Amino acid sequence: MKKNVITLFAFAALSLTACKNEPKNTGDATEITEGTETSKDALTYAVAAADSKVEWTGGKLTGGKHNGTITIANGEIHVKDGKIENGKIVFDMKSISVDDLKAGDGKEDLEAHLKGTGKEEATDHFFNVNKYPQGTFEITSVTEENGKSIIAGNLTLKDITKAIKFPAMITTADNEVMIHADEFAINRTDWKINFNSNSVFDNLGDKAINDEILIKLHVKATK
Predict the structure, then answer these.
(1) How far apart are CA 140 and CA 28, in angstroms?
(2) Which residues contact 148 (CB under 8 A, 6 or more apart)?
(3) Of 208, 198, 10, which Cα lies nearest the Cα of 116?
C-alpha cells in the first residue's frame, strides 16, 4: 500500500542484484502543502545536529531486513506561544549508514549501493548522493488529532517533493525543542526510488524489495 507520509531520509530496503525489467507506468508526485510565514515574534531554535538523527528500516518482501541511520545536518524550528509554527530540517544523504552489518561483512557494499557510490550502473538505484547530497523536510503545520500531535510538511528527496504527515511527541521549553516520531512509513516510489519495486517492475520474484521504508525521527533544537 502506498502512503503519503517524510523524510526523510531514506532509507530503502535492500538488494545487491540489479533489475533488468522494464518499468510499469508510475504516477507523479502529489501536491505539496503550503505553510504559513514565520511570525515576527516567533522564537527560533537551531537544530542540534549531534543530538538529532533519522533511523530507517527496510527489507525484501520475502523477509530479511536492514536498518541504519541518516545524519541531520542542520535546520531551524520556529515556535510561537509554546507551539511549533514551522521549520526546516536538512538531511545529509551522504551519511547513510547500515547499522545491522559489520565492516567487512557487506556493510560497505550495501552503503555504497544505497548512496550510489559503488558500481556505475547502480548510481541511481537509490539515493544518488553525489547528485542529490541533501534531503529536506519543511514543517508546514502541527495539529492535534485524537490527542496526538500531527506534523505535516513537505519531504524532498532527489529533487522530488511530497506532502507527508506523521504523529510525533513534541516538547517545548525556554531553551530547547524536542521532536520524537516513532515508527511511521513512507513509500519510496513516491520519490522515484524504484529499484526492485514489485509495484513498478514485473517478475521480480524473491528480489522484490518492500516499497515502504519505516522511519523514526529524532530532532533536538536549541536557542
Answers:
(1) 21
(2) 167
(3) 10
**Which of 23, 63, 64 lies closest to 196, judged by CA?**
23
Relative to beta strand 65-80, strand 83-98 is antiparallel
Q: Which three cell numbers stand for residue 8?
A: 526523510
Residue 94's pLDDT is 98
Q: What percent of the chain has pLDDT over 70?
A: 87
Query: pLDDT above 90 covers what percent of the chain?
Result: 80
Helix or strand (DSSP H, E) at 125: none
pLDDT tens sequence across 178-199? 999 999 999 999 999 999 999 9
What average pLDDT score do residues 47-59 get?
Answer: 97
CB–CB of 76/86 below 8 Å?
no
* Helix/strand number for the chain, H first, E second: 1, 9
Alpha helices in 84-125 (DSSP H): 107-115
Q: Given the C-alpha cell 526523510, which residue does it identify?
A: 8
How far lies 205's CA from each of 57, 61, 195, 202, 209, in Å?
21, 9, 13, 9, 10
pTM above 0.70, yes or no: yes
